[in-house]
Amino acid sequence: MITDSHCHLASARYADEERGEIIRRAAEAGVTRMVTLATCLDDVPLNLRLAEDPRVKAAIGIHPCDVHNAPDDAVERLAASAGDPRVCAIGETGLDYFHPTPEGWNETDFRNRQRDFLIRHFELAESSGLNIVIHTRDREGRGSFEDALRIYSDFSDRVRAVFHCFVSEWELAEKVIATGGLVSFGGVATFRNADLVKAAVKRCPAGSFMLETDSPYLAPEPMRGKRNEPAYAMRVAEAVASLRGETLEELAAHTEAVAEMFFRWRDDSA
Known about the structure:
alpha/beta, TIM Barrel, eight-stranded parallel beta sheet, 8 strands, about 40% helix
C-alpha cells in the first residue's frame, strides 16, 4: 500500500540476522515496497543482496559525507552495477555543508569534491536511464540546496531528481518541483515543532512528492529518538494524509504512482 522510498537496510545499526524480520514487519504494516540506498562502495553488495527480496529495490551511490573516503573512480565503479535489474536509481548522492570538514581537508576542496561527485552521479544516471536521489543539508543558510539545484538544472531535461528528507519551507520545494523534480517527506513531518515542513506538506501538489523513513535515522513520532525502520513509513503516511485532509487511500494512490514512475517499479515486481 505504501512505498518507503528511502531507507538504509544495509546500515550497521541493523544486525544481519534481523534484516529479514525488518522487511517482514514493514510488509505487515502496509509498507509493501522499500528502496534501500547505498552510501559507499562497500554498501553496494549487501544492498543488492537485500534487493533479491521482491519487496525491495536498491539505489547505488556515494554519500557526500563519504566522498573523501571514496576512490577517485568510485562513480565509474558504480557503473558496473547500474544495469542490474535490482537497481532502481542512482544515489544517495548530493551535497552536505552541515558536517565538519574531514581531517586533512579544507572546506573549499571538500565541497568541490562533493560537487564533482554529484555531477558524475548525474552523468551516470543519464547514461543508465535512471533517476537520482539527492541529499542536501546546511548548517546555516541554503548553500548546499542552491548548489545542488543549480547542478540539477543542467540535467533536468534528461534525469529526474528527488530531494529526499525534505525539511525546509514550501518555497524551496516549489523550486525543486519547478525544475522538474520531486521532494520526499519523512519522520520530521510528524514532529510537533516542524511548522515549515508541515506547511510544505500541505502545499505540495499531488504527484510532486513521495514518502520515506530514512531509517534507521529520524524516527517519526511517537518513536522519535529511537531506531527507525521501514514499517514506520505508515506513521509518516498517516501524518501526511491528516495534514493534507486526505484519506490514507487517497494519499497512497498518488504517492505510489509517483514511486512506481520514479523508480521504474512495475506491478509484477511488487
